[in-house]
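quick one before i forget lol
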Amino acid sequence: GMVKEKSSAIPRGPLFILHQLCPNYSNAQLLGVISCLAYSIFSLLMTLTNKAVLTVFDFKFPIALLIYQNIFTVVLLTSARSLGYIDFAGLHRPTVQSWYPVNVLFVFMLLSGSYALKFLSVPMITIFKNLSTTATCMGDYVLFGQPLSGSILFSIALMVASSIVAGLNDLEFSSEGYLWMGFNCLASAAYVLYMRKAMKTTQLSEFGMVYYNNLLSIPTLLPMLLVSGEFPTVLSTEMSSTFFTIRQLN
């Protein structure tokens, strides 16, 4: 009998819709567009959420907030792995030793970003994050010999110029906020560049990197929580909130 060929039809979904709109582009190109859009949307949502928690809801404990988020992420990843939705390697001492410098940069990137959010508006944070992209491109060129085309250099110049113009016209200028944002740009670039090197030695998957980053961040942040003085205040706040909730339920 005749052997039926496997269907190469594209499953209906975001990729199918994009194929209808842009039939001349390959799956890889369209998946790249979807990934960029998803990253941009969730990055913006994360920034807005953290800004709301730290300012609107007046939660003045950025280190505690990061620990909460890291614990939630670890629990979510572990649950998804237990249910068979995803798979990644568990903790191994050689991998932990190789990855820990990346994790330190990851923690400093998150922490500096959280402190910057306390003083700067979300539009200013978004604009100045472009400087970390610029620093990453320059580091990629210096450390790994990645060539920079004329269009990339032009884009970098525009990003730097937009950051300068935005800073000069910032009505809520905060020197402390800009200092933390400068640290954040440097930490973000160093994190991305060092991660590129560490990925070759650890062979971690995407979910594995997220798991390692969030799990290792917890013991890194806990001493900072104690030294900063956040722990007693957070503990008393949480106990007061719990006691109030119990009284309301009764």
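fyi The CA atoms of residues 88 and 206 lie 8 Å apart.
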